Amino acid sequence: MTTAELVYEHLKQLPEPTLGRVLDFVEFLEQKQRQSGPAGGPEVTDGPRQPGSAQGQVWMAPDFDAPLEDFKDYQ
Fold first, then answer.
1. Which one, of 43, 17, 40, lies nearest residue 28 by Cα?
2. I want to staple 18 with a disulfide (CB 3.0 to 4.6 A). Which of 14, 55, 65, 73 is the partner?
3. Distance of CA 72 to the CA centre of its chain
4. How far is CA 39 from each of CA 29, 31, 32, 36, rounded to the nearest angstrom?
5. How far apart are CA 8 and CA 10, in angstroms?
6. Which of 43, 10, 42 minimizes the C-alpha distance to 26?
C-alpha cells in the first residue's frame, strides 16, 4: 500500500470538521514546498557532523550572561 493510499484510509475515518483542518494543513505544506523549491526542504548533507564547522558563524554579546536590568528587582 502506498503512503497516499494509507493517508486516504485514515482520512476516510475522520469527521468532516477535522477534514477541513487537514485540508488547511495540506495546503500549507504545498505552499511551503513551492517556496522552498523542488526538493521541498533544507539541504541534506551526507556524513557525520564536524565539531567546530560553524565556528565564526555565531556571534554572542560579551555581556550575554550579565544580569538584565528588567529583572533587578527579582535578584
1. 40
2. 14
3. 35
4. 13, 13, 11, 7
5. 5
6. 10
pLDDT one-digit tens code per residue, 1-37: 899 999 999 999 999 999 999 999 999 999 888 887 6
Q: C-alpha cell of 31?
A: 505552499
pLDDT tens digits, residue range 50-73? 898 888 888 889 999 998 888 888
pTM of the model: 0.45
Spatial separation of the C-alpha atoms in residues 26 and 7, rounded to whole Å: 12
Cα separation, 19 vs 11, in Å, equals 7
In the block, which residue shows the cell 554579546?
A: 61
